[in-house]
Amino acid sequence: MTTVAIVGCTHAGTFAATSILNAHPDWDVHVFERNATLSFLSCGIALWVGDHVSDPRKMFYSSPAELEAAGATMHMRTDVTDIHVAEQTLEFRDLETGDTQTLPFDKLVVTTGSRPVVPSIPGIDSRRVQLCKSWNHAVELKERSKDAKSVVVVGAGYIGAELAEQFSDIGVHVTLVDAADRVLANNFDQPITDIVEDRYREHNVTLALGEKVVAFRDNDEDDTVTVVTDGGEYTAQFAVLAIGFLPNTDLVRGQVDMMDNGAIITNEFMQTSVPYVYAAGDSAAVFYNPTGQYDYMPLATNAVRQGMLVGANIEQPTRKYMGTQATSAVQLYDLSLAASGLTQGGANRRGMDIRSTELVEDYRPAFMQTTAPVTSILTWDPNTRLVKGAQFCSTVDVSGAANVVSMAIQSKFTIDMLANVDFLFQPNFDQPVYYAGAVAAKAVAEQDR
């Protein structure tokens, strides 16, 4: 019988376990997880803080009991303390009893996920500074939000941006701090982030952008914390740190190939440099189609698809990973924002010669009783004319457009091809030329001048 050890069980681990057991119900599959829960949808934390979750228990889509019923041997509240890849054994400790054991394995699946970035800053270990990642963090944030009057959110990426919006929606005064000079600077270019920043100001969120945090100072006399930056000081009842994630891969460091940041490099079948070791999710690198290079992009969508591929390939390589465009979306106040692939800023940071085209037009005809403008930004390679990315922003749902561009990038569409796709036209939904096609047509015209 083949013994499989799966270390870590959030998204990638859950889907890896399920897919392996579906394909090989007779295999001996052991799942190790430090926490008492699995499959937590942390993307719902901000929504729960803002009272937009029907039932927090529904933020879990699986359970230890479900995986056990499928045939897995579950080791919950268990810490894997060491992995010996060459010897094909791992050591683990029960966090409740302290008992330690060793498990020999035939196949190892590393789905250990990621950990929040916590820089060495004076005062960062304050009880008034908390993280936003796990179920325990979510419970603590929800509890704090009930009586909170003020909060400082450090980090204006997706997590920080959503927390700032939801806190402001329930009447908490928010200061949003980021070392970048724009909110969502890694996700959208300035024409869109300018719109988002205006919304924050309309909702009385203080933006402290282009400021690096240098210290946290506790104020015990009034039970607050002061976030000290290189540009000012901001005091609130508590602060939330949301400045990014790093792969949690120390257990196999030096035993399989990794990127400099510790993300495990796999082939297109999710195998590491050691053929019987697989990796998926936030612990693994992804092949980023817009650049043709491996990158680190911790997203649940990547984790789910990679986890499923582990089961498809764990006996023999059969189904290839198609790479990612890091397609994503977020709702902030009345704004729907969606993106796929490279922004102009992302291309510039990588030293790539990429052009961008912006188009602002109503999403449906003027004769409709209501309509709304959509800001579209398309990025493309001026030499190959290949589509490299796009961003969309509107008060109407534009998420589908990002999925369209994701398929275009993955299928190696040129701007000419995207401009000529057979998109539907119906006045309730769009213009005679759908805005994803219209911005591509504008790019064609700009390139052919």
Q: What is the CATH-assigned architecture of the largest domain?
A: 3-Layer(bba) Sandwich
Helix content: 10-25%
The level 1 CATH classification of the largest domain is Alpha Beta
> What is the third-level CATH name, the topology of the largest domain?
FAD/NAD(P)-binding domain
Q: How are the strands ordered across the major sheet?
A: 3-2-1-7-18
- By CATH, the superfamily of the largest domain comes out as FAD/NAD(P)-binding domain
Cα(first) to Cα(last) distance is 65 Å
Beta-sheet strand percentage?
25-35%
Low-confidence stretches: none
Biggest sheet: strands, sense, closure?
A: 5 strands, parallel
What overall form do the CA principal axes indicate? globular
Number of domains in the coordinates?
3
Structural class: alpha/beta
SS element count, helices = 11
Describe the structure.
The strands form seven sheets. The protein has a five-stranded parallel sheet, covered by helices on one side. Strands 9-16-10-11-12 form a five-stranded parallel sheet, with helices on one face. With 449 residues, the chain is an alpha/beta fold. The longest helix has 14 residues, at 300-313. It has helices at 11-23, 45-49, 64-70, 135-145, 158-169, 190-202, 300-313, 344-349, 399-410, 415-419, 435-447; strands at 3-7, 28-33, 73-76, 78-84, 89-94, 100-104, 107-110, 114-116, 129-131, 150-154, 173-178, 206-209, 213-219, 224-229, 233-236, 238-241, 245-247, 277-279, 286-288, 293-295, 328-332, 335-341, 355-362, 373-380, 387-394. Strand 14 and strand 15 form a beta hairpin. The chain contains eleven helices and 25 strands. The model has no long low-confidence stretch (mean pLDDT 96). Helix 1 packs parallel to helix 7 (300-313). The protein folds into three domains: 3-115 and 245-313, FAD/NAD(P)-binding domain (3-Layer(bba) Sandwich); 129-241, FAD/NAD(P)-binding domain (3-Layer(bba) Sandwich), CATH 3.50.50.60; 328-447, FAD/NAD-linked reductase, C-terminal dimerisation domain (Enolase-like, domain 1, 2-Layer Sandwich). Its cofactor is FAD. GO terms for molecular function: oxidoreductase activity. Pfam families: Pyr_redox_2. InterPro entries: FAD-bd_OxRdtase, FAD/NAD-bd_sf, FAD/NAD-binding_dom, FAD/NAD-linked_Rdtase_dimer_sf.
